[in-house]
Amino acid sequence: MKNTLIVLIATLLTISAFGQEDYLIKKIKQQECSNTSKKNNLLFVKYMSENMINSAKIIVNHWETACSLTEPVYRAKILWSLKAEQFNDSLFSNISIDHIFNYQNRIKGLNSTGTYWYESRESYYGYVPPGQDFDNYTQELAAELKNNYQESSMEYILAEFYSDNCDTIFQKLQLPNFQESKLSKEYYAVVKKYKKMLEFHIAGIFGIWIPTGKLAILGVHPEIGYQVGWKKRKMNYDFTMTFKYLDSPNSYYANLNHSSNNPELTNFFWGLYVGFDIGVDVFAKNGHEIQTIGGIAFDGIAVDYNTTALSYNFNFGLGYRYYIRNGFYIGLKMKYNVVNYTLDKVLDFTGNPVTVHFLVGGVNNRHRNENLEALKYPLRR
Asked: Model confidence over 24-34: pLDDT tens digits?
């Protein structure tokens, strides 16, 4: 028992020592990066403003070695390559979009507050205080470099981004002439990550139930109900419940209380539909969306307060949505329903109803949509 306790204490001390060592190493690296950044961002400004291109390159390389590819280092590399006319796609990292967001946040924070709470977020900003010499110089340098390139070039939109227009780069990456660039491909990879996220869907239903064949004697009835489900890209999955109501305009024979030997006249009518629908977007553009829809459901018609004619329901049809806003729509849905209300011998006539539904609903995933909006990617409008 004593030996076991000694081993346990030794193990805990070893784990603690390793944890403290990792923490110390991390703090040392952070301090090294902090010191290097505070010195090298000013040296970069000095050498670039004096046109000492090679010296500036050495500074950037040393800075990257100490700090890895922070946003200020990334910006310095891009602008150095533009000034040296050595820009190429290999300069883009696999986190270039993160650096773009970081720079936008840096500039927007300065513009909105005039001051910056920098001390508690030094590592996020690469240990380079916002709004000081490095930021001011890189904006001036980018504005000069912009004039050296054609507006249709990647070099131009990068110089424009770092000069006086950091809000349009994502729209420009969607233009056809940039589709094959490494940065555009990374952009669309990030967009794809958010687009494939599930969106919650809910809608209110208002419509009519139109019987056909011999079932037409029951008359047309209003329906009301709701849908809840989710949407994933082009696929739509929904649980649907609707209620049919109002007495039939015509009297009809039914076996009340399931007495098959004594059908009686009634005009009582009430119905329930509970089902699961799957829809596929076959067209989606500029806020318009067309779906093909199929579903399976439980369906029933009450012929009095105690007797119900039950049936399966297999249905298919088309749906249309118009998105007034990115997450809010009005829609129309038409379906043909295959049913058989004679299964339990309450009714002896059947037919296949058509339903026409007007929907008011919304689809939303706040995290997904906020990120796509930040990427300036058109959602549905």
From this structure: 555 567 788 99
